[in-house]
């Protein structure tokens, strides 16, 4: 990048509340890193009751944050901010996202980007003819399509949907917030994640069934929106909501942590969860379900463990020597610190912005990119 700080405006799902969403964690780490690099950032968030009741960071110190009631309020109060921004980013799952995106594109004078933190879900919805927060008409109008998913999905975005410049911008971790602790872990296996119907079968197989088979073991599940109909084994501790500032303590208190992937994400591949990076930065050994591209992120058996059955999970819990368990966690931490911190993502965003800006100046569409993990 040229080195000159930019004025950046982000229209995103939420930064003030991490309740029931992973977007806030992603925005916080990325925008904090961008602020450290000198950029001036404004975040615009729709004021909705479920986040208003669970704001764990109401005033982020690294950016200006404004809440708007509806599109009319957004236009009346903040159109001048959007018009003056050198970079405008509209995120996925924004309420009334198509209307908001069209409004923002009509007013923006600087570079525009769509940040899809849910790319496989987005493409699956569009394939079914469902358009809620992004439409096929809007996609080609953005200068840059930033995707949580890499690999072949980037080619599909450009080939099938006309995205001008589809580039990966994966989630990341802030190493100042996530690092190992010296406490002795008391939980044998834990899981952190909002309820999702298409993940629940995996949670049943890879955590609840092992808990039933091994009643002496200690298990934990943290996250909101789980149905009351779920019967939790007696040795599974439940936390309905775990704010981001408690994630580190949760991970550091586990011998192993479980990573589960939504069906659309697993099918697309190359879509790491922020929980992977958080746990790895804490040097907590990870047991994960398999998905395409995972082996390009962590080396199986050396930096991560793969499981598809309860017996495989129990074999790790019972038979993996403790020195190897700790070495696996440390190896994963080294990998994350080398390539997957928020600082890395901020630098990558700057590079994609420079590329898109140059293409806009030339009146061309950029085509060269890296599609895998780096």
List the helices and strands and how they pair.
Blueprint lengths: L6 E6 L10 H14 L3 E7 L2 H4 L11 E5 L2 H14 L2 E5 L5 H11 L3 E6 L2 H9 L16 E4 L4 H10 L4 E3 L18 E6 L4 H17 L5 E4 L13 E4 L7 H6 L1 E6 L3 H6 L5 H8 L4 E3 L16 E2 L3 H10 L2 H18 L2 H21 L12
Parallel strand pairs: 1-2, 1-4, 2-3, 4-5, 5-6, 6-7, 8-9, 8-11, 9-10, 11-12, 12-13
Helix pairs in contact: 1-13, 3-4, 7-11, 10-12
Describe this structure in words.
- It contains 13 helices and 13 strands.
- By secondary structure, the chain is an alpha/beta fold.
- The protein folds into 2 domains: 7-172 and 341-362, Rossmann fold (3-Layer(aba) Sandwich); 187-339, Glycogen Phosphorylase B (Rossmann fold).
- β8 (187-192), α7 and β9 form a beta-alpha-beta unit.
- It starts with 6 loop residues before the first strand and ends in a 12-residue tail after the last helix.
- The model is unreliable at 368-374 (pLDDT under 50).
